[in-house]
């Protein structure tokens, strides 16, 4: 690797509590997980840039001057590169010095299993790592809060203006955070008594599609939408305090999942699936709690248990039910500039 190569990595995420309500200003509780996106940026002779993202089927693609996407690029490839293009445009607009021509390599292999995405926030992790890599290439060192703000703005632009930014924030800060939209997060400690596991519940889901259906419900029934979001927000407000009280947190997770089901029933969005309901009932039978995570749909769900009273059969029962309990580390380190 060249001495002029910048290497940055950022973790994935899980929403623990606060999904959907965070879009309306309520706090969300998130954890970074030990699946990481890696970005290598090597300065090359310009003006053309190059980019590879093997997990997206992109190999040594030649870009235009200043990293602009070629006009003849097919729509599917343009869609794959939306996050890159949004980060590039934002950094170029805000940087205090011109970016050199770069050869970029983006590795997100940690975020997929058996050919589908796990819903651990790969695009948010890439946005965070790319923003750090490109600002470094421009000779800038941003404070963590400013770096997060830039990455959130770029990621939101790539998602057509949607997204709370919590997934990007936890990719930058790491650990466990309480996050209110567009404000610096508050770092929290993971409680020793609380066991948390991610569970694969089906094929990956599209966050913008699910959020779009929820907001379409808001347009159809503004009063009903407001009631459902307020129910979620009231519960989310107590999430940070409940982290220090494992029984209270488990009860809160159950209540939040129930409130999400109410929102989903009214929005017909597909947040909660029959598979989610089956796993929630199975968890309760064996002393645990299960809820959807993030936008929901087919992405990962969450299994919680109290370490001091957990029944030995809990994980075994999930395995027998065909649920893949992932070996994920929670409260993982945030964005890291790796040694050159």
UniProtKB/TrEMBL annotation:
Keyword Transferase in record: yes
InterPro entries, sorted: GHMP_kinase_C_sf, GHMP_kinase_N_dom, Mev_gal_kin, Ribosomal_Su5_D2-typ_SF, Ribsml_uS5_D2-typ_fold_subgr
SUPFAM superfamilies to which the protein is assigned, alphabetical: GHMP Kinase, C-terminal domain (SSF55060), Ribosomal protein S5 domain 2-like (SSF54211)
Superkingdom of this protein's organism: Bacteria
Biological process terms in GO annotation: isopentenyl diphosphate biosynthetic process, mevalonate pathway
Keywords: ATP-binding, Cytoplasm, Kinase, Lipid biosynthesis, Lipid metabolism, Magnesium, Nucleotide-binding, Transferase
A GO term from the CC aspect: cytosol
Entry's Gene Ontology molecular function annotations: ATP binding; mevalonate kinase activity
Protein name per the record: GHMP kinase N-terminal domain-containing protein
Pfam families: GHMP_kinases_N
Transmembrane helix recorded as keyword: no
Source organism per UniProt: Salinisphaera japonica YTM-1
UniProt domain GHMP kinase N-terminal: residue ranges: 117-175
Pathway(s): Isoprenoid biosynthesis; isopentenyl diphosphate biosynthesis via mevalonate pathway; isopentenyl diphosphate from (R)-mevalonate: step 1/3
């Amino acid at each position: 690797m060249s001495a002029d190569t910048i290497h940055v990595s950022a973790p994935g995420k899980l929403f623990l509590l606060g999904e959907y309500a965070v879009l309306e200003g309520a706090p969300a509780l998130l954890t970074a997980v030990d699946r990481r996106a890696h970005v290598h940026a090597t300065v090359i002779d310009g003006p053309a840039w190059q980019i590879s993202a093997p997990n997206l089927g992109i190999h040594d693609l030649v870009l235009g001057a200043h990293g602009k996407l070629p006009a003849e690029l097919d729509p599917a490839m343009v869609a794959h590169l939306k996050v890159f293009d949004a980060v590039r445009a934002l950094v170029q607009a805000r940087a205090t010095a011109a970016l050199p021509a770069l050869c970029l390599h983006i590795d997100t292999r940690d975020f997929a299993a058996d050919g589908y995405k796990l819903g651990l926030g790969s695009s948010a992790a890439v946005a965070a790592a790319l923003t750090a890599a490109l600002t470094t290439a421009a000779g800038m060192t941003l404070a963590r809060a400013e770096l997060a703000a830039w990455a959130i703005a770029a990621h939101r632009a790539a998602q057509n203006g949607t997204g709370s930014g919590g997934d990007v924030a936890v990719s930058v800060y790491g650990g466990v955070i309480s996050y209110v939209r567009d404000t610096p997060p508050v770092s929290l400690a993971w409680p020793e008594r609380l066991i948390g596991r991610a569970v694969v519940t089906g094929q990956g889901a599209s966050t913008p599609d699910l959020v779009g259906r929820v907001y379409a419900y808001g347009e159809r029934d503004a009063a009903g939408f407001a009631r459902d979001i307020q129910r979620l927000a009231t519960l989310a407000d107590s999430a940070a305090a409940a982290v220090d009280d494992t029984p209270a947190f488990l009860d809160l997770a159950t209540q939040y999942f129930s409130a999400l089901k109410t929102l989903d029933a009214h929005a017909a969005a597909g947040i909660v699936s029959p598979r989610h309901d089956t796993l929630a009932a199975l968890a309760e039978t064996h002393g645990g709690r299960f809820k959807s995570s993030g936008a929901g749909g087919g992405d990962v769900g969450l299994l919680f248990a109290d370490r001091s009273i957990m029944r030995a059969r809990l994980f075994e029962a999930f395995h027998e039910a065909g649920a893949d309990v992932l070996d994920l580390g929670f409260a993982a380190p945030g964005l890291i500039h790796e040694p050159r």
